[in-house]
Design brief:
This protein is an alpha/beta fold. The chain is 25% helix and 21% strand. It contains 6 helices and 9 strands; from the N terminus they run E-E-E-H-E-H-E-H-E-H-E-E-H-E-H. The longest helix is centred in the last third of the chain and has 15 residues. The N and C termini lie far apart (39 Å).
Length: 224
């Protein structure tokens, strides 16, 4: 089997949802929900929480199967930082691959992660990322249609054949990141696409998404 370790990257400095990972979500928080799941994923070689802020370290104590991976303070500054700074801690992981588990998707199940892990082990693509099927209309900055180009299609459910990155997880080879400083080439099958259930793919980037994800999460855990 290919060696792969899982990492949750966490920081306080969310620009669109202040204190996103630590603020109350349902009866918990986004980071605790993610850590609880990661703590029970026994199929990874090692499991890490990558942080630079002590608030997260205090929470990690409860999850004995997850190790601390320290990040540089520069890696968690607000905004978008260079890859070699943001993900420098990947170079400390000895596994051949890093499975990056996003804590901002509270509805994703351990089963979906296990299905992705098993698929990864059975296939031989250089990198992977999670997607959902969509019929969304996407346009370039110049207004050129990139997905729906059929003038007879006035809906978003006639052709649901496009794949949209949902950022639930990525799987990247540590060797390439070490040697080239990139996660993938953004060519066909690099990253290779792994589809997950759309109801598990709400990625909390904004306050409306935070509230919507909380409602869906509560319904899911209460089997409504």
């Amino acid at each position: 089997m290919k060696s792969v370790s899982a990492v949750i990257n966490a920081r306080k400095g969310s620009t669109r949802v202040p204190n996103k990972l630590l603020r109350q979500f349902s009866d918990s928080s986004l980071i605790e929900i993610a850590l609880e799941k990661l703590n029970n994923m026994d199929f990874f070689e090692k499991k890490y929480l990558a942080i630079a802020e002590e608030e997260f370290e205090k929470i990690l104590v409860k999850y004995t199967n997850v190790e601390l991976l320290r990040r540089n303070k520069e890696a968690v500054k607000r905004g978008v930082n260079p890859l070699n700074i943001t993900f420098a801690h990947y170079l400390e992981i000895e596994s051949d691959y890093v499975f990056v588990f996003n804590p901002c998707l509270p509805c994703i199940s351990i089963n979906s992660i296990k299905v992705a892990f098993d698929y990864f082990q059975k296939t031989d693509f250089i990198s992977y990322t999670a997607v959902v099927s969509t019929g969304d209309w996407i346009f370039s900055n110049e207004g050129k249609p990139l997905t729906n180009v059929d003038p007879k299609n006035a809906t978003t459910n006639k052709n649901i054949s496009f794949k949209k990155g949902c950022h639930a997880f990525h799987i990247i080879p540590t060797k390439r990141f070490r040697n080239e400083g990139i996660l993938w080439e953004f060519n066909v099958n690099d990253p290779h696409l792994i589809e997950i259930p759309s109801e598990e793919a709400i990625d909390v980037d904004t306050l409306p998404e935070f509230y919507a994800a909380e409602i869906l999460y509560n319904e899911k855990i209460n089997n409504i």
